[in-house]
Design goal:
The chain is of the alpha/beta class and about 180 residues long. The chain has a single domain (about 25-179), classed as Rossmann fold (3-Layer(aba) Sandwich), CATH 3.40.50. The protein has helices spanning about 25-35, 55-65, 75-90, 105-110, 130-135, and strands at about 45-50, 70-75, 95-100, 115-120, 140-150, 165-170, 170-179.
């Protein structure tokens, strides 16, 4: 895996392979996503939330591009440990708030709103289509903010009233939602 752009562009990292509970966004699809986001977001002004954070890939990318307020949420201890190690290696701890909890518990108790939210849930998760509504109901997206939901072709959100765009990268689909 690598960071695509910004200060840490080209930095490669490898999460531990043994019993790793995530499915990281591929470099090709991540590059496509961030090419789109570069035209929509000023990363230096963004308050970012990474749900189902896994490797922390999206936090590193946003911080590399200038974000100074990134929150990472995951429940797996190995993921948390890896994200903390990476934050220390990149010297970005002041910009990355790491939260170990279930994402749905986090959403339920969240009182913050964000400019950009990325949700990359495990593909087998049954309630992926509910995630945009849960986030929107809690008003977690700022007025001009953006939610990007990563999913595969088995998940359909194309009839959601807040969906503004969808991009397909093979088995990876990014669905874009506005408040």
């Amino acid at each position: 895996m690598r960071i695509i752009g910004g200060e840490f562009r080209g930095y490669r990292f490898t999460p531990p392979a043994k019993k790793w509970p995530t499915r990281p966004t591929t470099d090709i699809s991540k590059e496509g996503l961030y090419n789109i986001l570069a035209n929509k977001i000023d990363f230096s002004e963004v308050k970012f939330l990474d749900l189902f954070g896994g490797t922390g890939n999206h936090c590193y990318e946003c911080i590399s591009r200038g974000c100074r307020d990134a929150t990472y949420v995951d429940k797996f201890p190995g993921c948390i440990a890896f994200a903390k190690t990476m934050a220390a290696k990149l010297d970005i701890e002041p910009y990355m708030n790491i939260v170990q909890t279930n994402v749905f518990t986090f959403i339920k108790h969240c009182t913050e709103s964000y400019d950009y939210i990325f949700a990359g849930p495990p593909y087998p998760l049954k309630n992926i289509p509910e995630i945009p509504d849960l986030i929107l109901e809690k008003k977690m997206i700022k007025q001009d903010g953006l939610l990007v939901l990563e999913h595969n072709p088995n998940v359909t959100v194309s009839d959601h009233p807040n969906l503004v765009d969808q991009r397909n990268y093979g088995q990876t689909i990014f669905s874009f939602f506005k408040a």
